Amino acid sequence: MFRLSCNIIIIDPAGTTMLELPFVNEIEIEKSRKTLTNTAKVTIARKLKVFKDSTQVDINTIIKRGSKIEIQLGYDDNLETKFTGYVARVDAKIPFTIACEDEMWNLKQNSFTKVFGKVKVSEIVSYIYPGAAQVVDLEIGGITIKKASTAQVLLGLKKFGLQCYFDKGILIVDFAGSVHTGKEVYYDFNTNVISNDLEYKRKEDTRIKVRGISKLHSGGKIEIVAGDNDGEEHTLHYVNLDKQELQKIVNAEIDKLKVDGYENGFTTFGIPSIEPGDIAILNDDDYPEHNGSFLIESVKTTFGMSGYRNVPNLERKLA
After folding, report:
1. pLDDT mean values, one per 10 residues, the chain (319 residues)
2. Nearest one of 109, 156, 153, 102 to 127, comparing CA atoms
3. pTM (2 decimals)?
4. Domains of the chain (ranges plus CATH)?
């Protein structure tokens, strides 16, 4: 039987004091390609006494807003880093609860002001974020940034149908369904899948019509309609997008809404490790319709008294 293992490393904002916690009551980590910020919540059941140079230190001087945090989880002392980020909030009551956010927390603390005319999304991202990024090839009609953080600008880009999130330390700005650095993870429903509430949906069963409208600075407009004539209509409004770029967005919106795949997810053990953007290879000898390769949209990880569990949710079927 495997023994649960964990280690929580917290460094105060000044970088002078490090705290390691080899025990917790509960940990909950939520990561998704659809949300801007990945989060974690660490709950400590008992009051801690922390010492530095034989002197007791107030834990609130270490675990406070802006402290760096790394969460390592595993079995039998074989640990893997499952979350890195910053302490966003602390509830000092008993139990002691630490709310954390990934690198996006740091990108909420800056500020930019700039007016772009017609511009590539990659140029905007380069202006607001100096790190490694993979960005869609899309030109938009213009954007005004006024005392906005990197996170706020990325949130604004989502109206173009883009997903903005961190994947293995790389900022991804792309349409839904794009496959980047994901690894393949194998699951067999008779061995390492605990339970599932998967509901299959077929692309042809979803009736969608998308209308894209771009108002031009010249006073005219471009309108593109695609999808099913009898489908539920979704209308997207933009400014000064040309026909080619508007078509990209309309096509991506249809591709996001009309997919073959499963709704909901399944529950598995803490290993093998899986992340959003990975590809789950499913095998079910009893129900072959479960079989296939699926892009992972989100993963909820829990660790504590009830064990170590992952709940991946599937975005779409790839093969």
Report:
1. 92 89 93 96 75 64 89 96 96 84 96 95 97 95 94 95 91 90 90 89 87 91 92 91 94 88 89 94 87 94 95 91
2. 153
3. 0.89
4. 4-101 (no CATH), 108-175 (3.55.50.30), 184-202+261-317 (2.40.30.150), 207-257 (3.30.1920)
